[in-house]
Amino acid sequence: MSTSYVTEKGPFVSLLTGLPGGGKAFMGILLAAAVFIVVGNQIIPEDNFFHVPTYMVSLLGKYLCYALLALSVDLIWGFCGILSLGHGAFFALGGYVMGMYLMRQIGDRGVYGNPELPDFMVFLNWQELPWYWFGFESFAFTGLMIMLVPGLLAFIFGWFAFRSRVTGVYFSIITQAMTYALLLAFFRNDMGFGGNNGLTDFKEIIGFDLRSDGTRLGLFVGSVIALAVGYLVSSFITQSKFGRILIAIRDAESRTRFTGYRVEYYKLTVFVISAVLAGIAGSLYVPQVGIINPSEFSPANSIEVVIWVAIGGRGTLWGAVLGAILVNWGKSYFTGALPEAWLYMLGGLFVFSTLALPKGIVGTFPIFYDTIRRKLGRRADDLSNVKEGDA
């Protein structure tokens, strides 16, 4: 994608056209929206039209987590050509890591009153806490695991896949197979993650009651910060020399390899970074929705993320965020208004965007912008010629 007029057209035009210079505008919009929501929830009275209820704060926080997940997919698909249909697995793993921490915080306040074992373990007659649950009483350890667990899985999976030069649809299939395998594994009660019911009934996070309005607002602010940092990291990567090599791999992998670059190392690096971003998104998602279960590993969820990115605009970063928020807002609205028709509408939206907006909402705007600019330029030239003729 050309960046020849990024600096001269300013950040907002660059944002709309999906070019790198739009990062400042994106950060400004995100900050302004966050301030408005915080003020609307805490200061504006409930009877005022501009008041933002707490349930809306949690809903918007969930959308921001989805936006970070979509951003992680766009980083590898839009800029490196790696179509992953398994990023829902990294999202779910980050969620499970956070869920384990939240379960350890319950202590003896559970149904069975066991200070060490979560309720589902007591129900299944577990005698002691499994070794892989140790350490999750610490928030610092949990924060480390949120990044390490998805990142390590991505590293191991990517190491074998990229060294074997698995690309294209074959890579997409094996990522989906990985996600489905994890889905089946986490459904088992003997895995120690709650089986079909998953992890739920959370009480608090770092000492704050999860049911309080202040905690929900704090989680929303945390989601804003995570999305902003994720966007800055992704923008830095894509605008650096490393990012230019990723684009070269996307457009001509064989030629890039023949010029001497170790393509598999670049792919592996960006794949791991992308998985870590997805894991962070999942960790913020769980305390806001109050549950994590194996359904989050469903391959359909990973496919839906790809739809968000395609609708918003692949390879634009901002488009992935926009697509995730718009589609999930529509999903929340239409599942209540037209619950039986929502899946058909989602499929129709994807077909429409593929046919009418092949580069997504944001990706199509540069074409429209250039067309208008050329028309205005020709009109200005025509007026100038008319004036010269009159003279």
Key phrases:
two-stranded antiparallel ribbon; 391 residues; 71% helix; 2 domains; mainly alpha
Number of helices: 16
Give the SSE string: HHHHHHHHEEEHHHHEHHHH
Mean pLDDT: 88
Class based on secondary structure composition and strand pairing: mainly alpha
Name the overall outline.
globular
Strand order of the largest sheet: 1-4
Radius of gyration (Å):
23 Å
Strand content: under 5%
List low-pLDDT spans.
1-8
Largest sheet: 2 strands, antiparallel
**How much helicity do the residues have?**
over 70%
Number of domains: 2
Task: Report how far the terminal alpha carbons are from each other.
Answer: 43 Å
- Count of DSSP E strands? 4
Q: So what's the oligomer here? A: single chain
Can you put this structure into words, describing what you see?
This protein is mainly α. It has two domains: 1-52, no CATH class; 64-306, no CATH class. The protein has 16 helices and four strands. The strands form two sheets. It has a two-stranded antiparallel sheet with strand order 1-4. It has a two-stranded antiparallel sheet with strand order 2-3. It is globular, with a radius of gyration of 23 Å.
In short:
The protein is mainly alpha-helical and 391 residues long.
Topology:
Blueprint (H helix, E strand, L loop, with lengths): L5 H4 L1 H6 L6 H20 L11 H27 L6 H18 L14 H5 L15 H25 L4 H20 L11 E2 L3 E2 L2 E2 L3 H27 L1 H11 L1 H6 L4 H27 L1 E2 L6 H14 L5 H20 L4 H15 L3 H31 L1
Helix pairs in contact: 3-9, 4-9, 4-10, 4-12, 4-13, 4-14, 5-7, 5-12, 7-12, 9-10, 9-12, 13-14, 13-16, 14-16
